[in-house]
Sequence to fold (266 residues):
Amino acid sequence: MSGSQPNPYGTFPQDSQSPNFAPQDSAKPKKKKRGFLKWGVGIVAVVVLFSAFTNNDDDDDAATTADSADTNKSVDLVAEAEAETEPDAAAGADANADTAAETPNSDAAGVDDNVSKEFQNALRSAERYLDFSSFSYQGLYDQLTSEYADAYPADAAQYAVDTVTVDWNEEALESAENYLEFSHFSYQGLYDQLTSEYGEQFTPEQAQYAVDTVDADWNAEAVEAAESYQELMPMSGTELLNQLTSDYGEKFTPEQAQHAVTAVGL
Fold:
């Protein structure tokens, strides 16, 4: 990072100045006619006061020296910390620069500069379609080339479906889940819908994966179908059973259809 770093040790202490002590006037002993002894006592008192005053100045000098030493020590510690921090900051900046250099631009990911702009747009359209819904390989190609949709040239659409990153099995599974959320289907009916040229146009292998993997209760699907028929028109139990199992109807197994007929009370 550039710019000044906040000082981890706070504000440097300012140079301490020695307190100014105004020398106090020593009291002069008054001359009294008390004899030599009193003069001796006065001289001793003057000596004591002089010594005390001298010691006080020495203490102030010592305190000033100690404060200066502490200040110098703090400055040395801060200088040492900054010296240790600067290489780390420089190393971090170098690491960030290396990472930025190694990381490709996400907008440029998947874009081949060797193909035309229209090819690139077709690929982007394919990616957006797959983000929005489920498509088979053929279904996506038809969508890209349809005159009612994107109307890309055949070669651009072919490039897109061949280049786009996608798992077609998972697309088939997602499509199966969407169908079961929207309506009722039997196992065979869902498979036919996924492979139909009028439906999703998945390959047989992809559709098989979807119907084998999807989380579905086929008995419950049969009951839902039976209830829908009952709401649409009155039927006998036999007629409803035939409709549920017919190849032109729902294509449930006989066991699933019978379970449904019984469930609706016929």
